[in-house]
Amino acid sequence: MLASFQSDIDKENHGDCFVSEFRILVQRFFNRGPTVLSIIDDELIGTVYVLTVPFFDPGLGGVTILGDRVYVAANSEGLVVLDKTDPANLQALGTLDESSYFADVFFDGQYAYVAALGDGLIILDVLTNPNNPTIVGRFNPGDEIKDVKVQGNKAYLASDLTGMRVVDISNPMNPIEDTLYDSLGGVHNVTVSGNRAYLCTSANGVPMYILDITDPTNPTFLGSYYGGSSFIHDVFVENDTAYVSHWGLGLRIVDVTNPASPVEIGAYNYGGSRTHNAFLSGQYCYIEDEIIPGGFMRVVDVSDPTVPFEADSFIYSDSDPDGYAHNIYVQGNYAHISYASDGVVIADISDPLNPTLSGFYDMISYNWGVHPGSSYVYATDSHTGLWIFQFTPPPPGVEEENGESKVRDLKPTLSHLPNPTQNRVQINYSLPYPSEVLIKVYDLTGREVRNLVKDNLDAGSYSVEWNGKDDRGEKVSSGIYFVRLNAQFGQEEEFSETKKLIFLK
């Protein structure tokens, strides 16, 4: 990570705060009573300072130590700065509270535009010095800004309380509102494509609205689309086709050539759908599913938009119990995923039918949005501000060891045919090196259904058959199942891959 930024340092509920690049990791502390703060200084290994801080509201978020200064995120006190020159007698030097809760982020090549809920729009220069992003402008209308998109010199803001606000950002240091389109009552997400804006309210029974923004100062209504029960959370639009995240109804593909009369041309739904976000790249639409725990990135083949189907899926295997896929941005061969409490997860989709984990950064609180630029990745943590990362994709088959590059064997592979299946399925897997192997089948709730392989195997190709029975020998019911391969090689290297299987009777 290069840097992190909080709106003049901190947030409304004041979680962990970061003033510079990490040199120390401090555990979260207590939530009740006089707060006991323990500080482990990386310059004085083994030295622990303990402080009871009655002048704080109960509960601390986190700490960063720089020299003799201790920066504490302390609930409603905001940022509290302590002097630890005398460790036995820590003194408060002052506080700074600039309440901000960062939601989505949009990067235009020079500036990061952050939807900061009650603090409106915050504009940061993140290019001049990525290690020290600075605020250059603000626009605060006094409501809840959840999303921001930028096109030209206009920022389009989604407010849950009012509607869509159009802001002139031709001078980022002095953003000025052009207009408020408030006939909807509230907007959760906004998508801008050409001379149209698509507004999603995330409210049951309320459609997606399509506006003409040829004149951004005077948006006009063109049409709407709903498509049934549940609610529309977000939409991706390309070439007059809208890929609608319809929460409980999955992905809906809508022809919006005539915005006055949108036509649904295809749909992909699945049990327990919580379709949150979608991004089209080539013939595949990558959708994020807020199923908890874990959540999926589902790879949907939309080459024929009238019959979309799930070609594969990806789940972050080290997911926190509260982690789930939230938002996604695809750039080149990589899907950048906001994985909520698991932070930023980057999946290699160079082979869309076999997405693999390429990198991750476990942010402190809740990764809401992510937007990759040409050199850096910009991500918002709802409690700890804007984070800037540098992601350098590894060359295929090459890894670093002791500072030197070496060629590494390919990863283990996993596949299965046929899918869907009614009776039996053959599971094929290959090992590029000797490994301790586990292959298990799980149901949609994560319950283990069948243990198929538990063995130490040499490098090579193998197959195992599953007859659709559980460990008790009973036939499983129709539904979605997951085949998971775990391969342990050496003392520390571990690989896992999960594939979806549809079993029919």
CATH homologous superfamily identity of the largest domain: YVTN repeat-like/Quinoprotein amine dehydrogenase
| Mean pLDDT value | 75
Q: How many beta strands in the DSSP annotation?
A: 43
- CATH fold topology of the largest domain: Methylamine Dehydrogenase, Chain H
Net shape: globular
State the helical fraction: under 10%
- Helical segment count: 0
Largest sheet descriptor: 4 strands, antiparallel
In what order do the strands lie side by side in the largest sheet? 1-34-33-32
CATH hierarchy class name of the largest domain: Mainly Beta
- CATH architecture tag of the largest domain: 7 Propeller
> Runs with pLDDT <50, length 5+?
1-64, 73-79, 94-99, 396-410
Oligomer kind? single chain
Number of domains: 3
Measured on Cα atoms, how large is the radius of gyration? 25 Å
Proportion of residues in β-strands: over 45%
Structural class designation: mainly beta
Spatial separation of the terminal alpha carbons: 49 Å
Search tags:
Methylamine Dehydrogenase, Chain H; 43 strands; four-stranded antiparallel sheet; 3 domains; single chain; Immunoglobulin-like; mainly beta; globular; 505 residues
Explain what the structure shows.
With 505 residues, the protein is mainly β. The protein folds into 3 domains: 3-96, no CATH class; 105-389, Methylamine Dehydrogenase, Chain H (7 Propeller), CATH 2.130.10; 407-503, Immunoglobulin-like (Sandwich). Helices cover 0% and strands 50% of the residues. It has no helices and 43 strands. It has a 4-stranded antiparallel beta sheet, with no helix packed on it. It has a 4-stranded antiparallel beta sheet with strand order 4-5-6-7, with no helix packed on it. The protein is globular, with a radius of gyration of 25 Å. 43% of the residues are buried.
